[in-house]
Write a structure and sequence with these properties.
2 domains; 3-stranded antiparallel sheet; globular; alpha+beta; Lysozyme; 6 strands
Length: 238
């Protein structure tokens, strides 16, 4: 897909002030200079601390202990309580099929869309956020209406609308993935105001979480090429 080459540069390190994604990040370390780093684990030797960006001992950033302002655990994405209605009988395979179709329609990487779904709703079709965002890709009612989505709890409509919205944001920000994800989370007005990812902790953690999951999926594909090829060759249920 045409956007694959654009996203490839984000797989190892996101070179953006305040965000450094990792494959297995467990903590967000905030430095006094304003930078945030997501790290898998830390090791301290005297006054120096190594912040490992993955389980690989060769991938780390070394800083003075005094430069660390705070360390926060990065929780899994919260999923709000769901309405008291019966869950649609959709399997993970069904959802993946819908994501694959939407990705093909907009020429977007399926792993990217799957990563957004996981960060937004954890795969909960009936998820509702505290601000009223709904469904798998957490569409606000107004945004959903603009996208032609009449029922955000229908997985097909939600994924189709969310994918179209993300595609429009990527076009708006010239395929700058972090900016597009930040706008998806906080709104384009916030990204435009700060000329980049806004200084909101929730948004910065969200962007890093999506890219971390995207990294994890791509890493798995590299380690399991046969399984990936088999999944890709499976016929779609039309």
């Amino acid at each position: 897909m045409k956007k694959m080459s654009v996203f490839a540069g984000w797989l190892a390190v996101l070179a953006l002030p305040g965000i450094v994604p990792a494959l297995q990040a467990a903590e967000q370390v905030t430095l006094k200079n304003g930078y945030n780093l997501l790290c898998d684990h830390r090791e301290q030797e005297g006054d120096r601390v190594r912040l490992f960006t993955s389980k690989d001992s060769g991938n780390f950033v070394e800083v003075d202990a005094a430069e660390i302002l705070s360390v926060d655990a990065v929780p899994d994405p919260p999923v709000a309580a769901t309405p008291a209605v019966a869950e649609p009988r959709l399997t993970n395979s069904d959802v993946h099929e819908l994501i694959a179709r939407a990705g093909a329609d907009h020429n977007l990487d399926v792993d990217l869309l799957a990563s957004v779904v996981r960060a937004e709703s954890g795969g909960n079709i009936r998820a509702v956020s505290r601000t009223g965002a709904q469904g798998l890709m957490q569409l606000m009612p107004g945004t959903a209406a603009e996208l032609g989505v009449t029922d955000s709890f229908r997985a097909d409509q939600n994924i189709k609308g969310g994918t179209a919205y993300l595609d429009a944001l990527l076009l708006r920000y010239h395929d700058h993935l972090a900016f597009a994800l930040a706008a998806y989370n906080a709104g384009p007005a916030a990204v435009d105001k700060y000329h980049g990812v806004p200084p909101y902790r929730e948004t910065r953690v969200y962007v890093a979480r999506v890219i971390r999951e995207f990294n994890r999926r791509k890493q798995w594909e590299k380690q399991h090429p046969a399984a990936t090829a088999a999944l890709s060759s499976m016929p779609a249920n039309r």
